[in-house]
Amino acid sequence: MSLNDSKIIELPKIMDHRGNLTFIESDRHIPFDIKRVYYLYDVPGGASRAAHGHRGLSQLMISMSGSFDVTLDDGFEKKKFHLNRSYYGLYIPPMIWRDLDNFSSGAVCMVLASDFYDEGDYFRDYDNFLNEARKGHK
């Protein structure tokens, strides 16, 4: 996978004077089955989150409230995304390092994941991630 496989996905939005509704369906709006959902909230000002990569996991990140920045890195280049709308999701395929920062007050980041939690799927060390990501590209 490369950074070019990451993208913003516009989710369905049903507008109504009583409030809007957005929904997400596995393998229809996003390219994977949803096996886990989690969310980050009450992130202190100036703090960052994530700082890891995944070997096989795909994710969709959504700003449910407020805003934050996501910097993605495939081992060769980096790209920053600003998430601030609940009907836009950032698709992140496997083998992409991610850093989250610049959380606004009250920001909530919801993450849909393609698999159950597995610590063995994580890259926690950036140098180990780089070595694996750059294999076969020398």
TrEMBL record:
SUPFAM superfamilies: RmlC-like cupins. It holds the Pfam family FdtA. Residues 5-133 form the Sugar 3,4-ketoisomerase QdtA cupin domain. It comes from the Bacteria. InterPro entries: QdtA_cupin_dom (IPR008894), RmlC-like_jellyroll (IPR014710), RmlC_Cupin_sf (IPR011051). Gene3D superfamilies: Jelly Rolls. This is WxcM-like domain-containing protein. It comes from Methylophilus medardicus.
